[in-house]
Design brief:
It is built from 13 helices and 20 strands. It is α/β, with parallel strands linked by helices. It has a domain of 32 residues. Strand 2, helix 6 and strand 3 form a beta-alpha-beta unit. The longest helix is centred in the first third of the chain and has 25 residues. It comes from Triticum aestivum. InterPro entries: At1g61320/At1g61330-like, F-box-like_dom_sf, F-box_dom, LRR_At1g61320_AtMIF1, LRR_dom_sf.
Length: 492
């Protein structure tokens, strides 16, 4: 009896420490029926389908998966598999056929219930209209909250597949919250009304026919609007108020004017040629990203868009050459709220030491008296030698604390600008110069511009050493204790 009691006590202790067998086992079937599909939806669709094979009772769980995202072959993949042109075409057709078969199989078996996101990303010609219409029909009939159709990189712009916006209007009942369309055509009309809960709209290389401002007028809850490389509209003039719009991006558009009413706008981005831009009532605008085409870009950033004067953060991209338009004399304090500025400049000149377009930034600092941080990335498309130059004039600056300059090759204009800042920024804590271009100018690869550092680095380091000693002796600035700290990016 004592041995039996001891054995029972030991078993009880083990169960207490490790748990009884029944307590440690877990079965999906033990969970409520409505919870099981939710757990399965946490897996990517492909993994959910594979997991459903584990148990017979799980086999239908994936058919309630909330996110159906399909990535198929794009034209970039077409010729990558083989050097033989015809074999490559056959391979592409097989990939696309397999992709179409997979999508059709999934939507045929799926319950169509509880769809959160339906996304298709694949290079599809107009000849596949029947399949595309079937997928659009499934996405809309299942009332997916997020719909993405990206058919881009098919180089037949006049054969874009038509996306029926009216399909998103289910008896006047709005259901889509995010809509991303690429390389399709749309035709807004007065019949469409079901966009009241749309929060995000992205149109990329879309052919727009019909009343586009009228469509936006029905998007009363729109918070994010991005229009990239679209055509079919001459102007983006939207007279209706978009009171909840917070982010607006317009890029690569062949239009004559931009005009929006957006009282909640916080971030405005424009990339394109110089045109009139009017933003009404944007008292909450805090960030602007500007890229004007042509040699007048830098000047126009500071003069052509009065609506951005209240921003705290400014990111600008520009070309500079000897033909660049100079900044006009402006009264001090136009950008009274600007705290952080990033500049990406491409300098086109055959004479790096004769071009002083970069010095326009000294004027920019004059009109931003409360600027605290400046990041300047300079890609100079020229060869160079080292030179020193006279210091250009600039007003005293009482707030600038940190300056970072990449692509610094000791060109005359670069030296003059650096000395302008060193002499006039009374509270400057750190100026870091970097011969490498550390920022991808216009999303490009800058590795080819960083190949000659071995020749450039000694001269840049010598200039940094001499300049640091000069300004330290003048006691005009608060420097780090060691010169190598100030120029840590170079020496490291």
């Amino acid at each position: 009896m004592e041995e039996t009691a001891a054995a029972a006590g030991k078993l009880t202790r083990l169960e207490h420490e490790h748990g009884a067998p029944d307590e440690t086992s877990f079965r999906m079937e033990d969970l409520p029926a409505e919870v099981q599909p939710v757990i399965m939806s946490q897996l990517p669709l492909k993994e959910a389908v594979r997991t459903s094979i584990v148990s017979r009772s799980w086999r239908m769980l994936w058919t309630f998966h909330s996110d159906l995202c399909f990535d198929g072959p794009t034209p970039n993949d077409l010729d990558s598999d083989t050097d033989d042109e015809f074999a490559g075409q056959d391979s592409t057709k097989m990939k696309r056929a397999k992709f179409i078969e997979t999508v059709n199989s999934v939507i045929q078996q799926h319950s169509g219930i509880g769809i959160n996101k339906f996304s298709v990303r694949c290079g599809m010609h107009k000849e596949y209209t029947d399949h595309l219409d079937r997928w659009i029909g499934f996405a809309t009939s299942s009332k997916a909250k997020i719909i993405h159709f990206n058919l881009k990189k098919i180089y037949q712009p006049f054969e874009f597949h038509h996306f029926p916006l009216e399909a998103l209007d289910s008896q006047g009942c709005s259901f889509v919250q995010s809509l991303f369309l690429a390389s399709v055509s749309i035709k807004p009309n007065s019949v469409i009304s079901g966009f009241t809960i749309l929060r995000r709209l992205v149109l990329e290389f879309v052919k727009i026919l019909g009343d586009f401002p009228g469509l936006l007028a029905k998007c009363s809850g729109l918070e994010d609007l991005e229009i990239i490389g679209c055509y079919g509209v001459d102007n983006l003039i939207v007279p209706h108020k978009l009171d909840k719009l917070q982010h607006l991006l317009i890029a690569g558009m062949d239009i004559q004017m931009v005009e929006f009413h957006a009282t909640d706008l916080a971030h405005f981005e424009y990339k394109g040629r110089v045109i009139p831009i009017v933003l009404h009532g944007c008292s909450k605008l805090e960030k602007a990203t500007m890229k004007f085409n042509g040699t007048k870009a830098l000047a126009h950033t500071f003069t052509a868009v009065p609506s951005i004067l209240s921003v705290k953060t400014l990111h600008l991209q520009a070309f500079i050459s000897k033909y660049a338009q100079k900044l006009p004399a402006r009264q001090q304090g136009m950008f009274l709220h600007l705290r952080h500025m990033t500049c990406q400049l491409i300098v086109n000149s055959n004479d790096p030491n004769g071009d002083n377009g970069i010095l326009q930034l000294a004027n920019c600092l004059d009109v931003a008296p409360r600027l605290e941080t400046l990041h300047l990335h300079m890609l100079c498309a020229i060869s160079s030698s080292f030179s020193s130059g006279e210091v250009a004039g600039m007003r005293r600056h009482d707030h600038l604390k940190t300056v970072f300059m990449s692509g610094f090759r000791c060109y005359k204009a670069q030296i003059e600008l650096a000395c302008c800042i060193l002499r006039n920024a009374s509270v400057l804590e750190q100026l870091i110069i970097e011969p490498r271009i550390t920022d991808k100018v216009w999303a490009g690869d800058c590795s080819e511009w960083n190949t000659d550092l071995g020749e450039i680095l000694p001269g840049v380091c010598e200039w940094a050493q001499v300049t640091s000693e000069h300004f330290r002796k003048q006691r005009r600035l608060l420097w780090p204790s060691k010169t190598k700290d100030l120029f840590s990016t170079i020496i490291s």
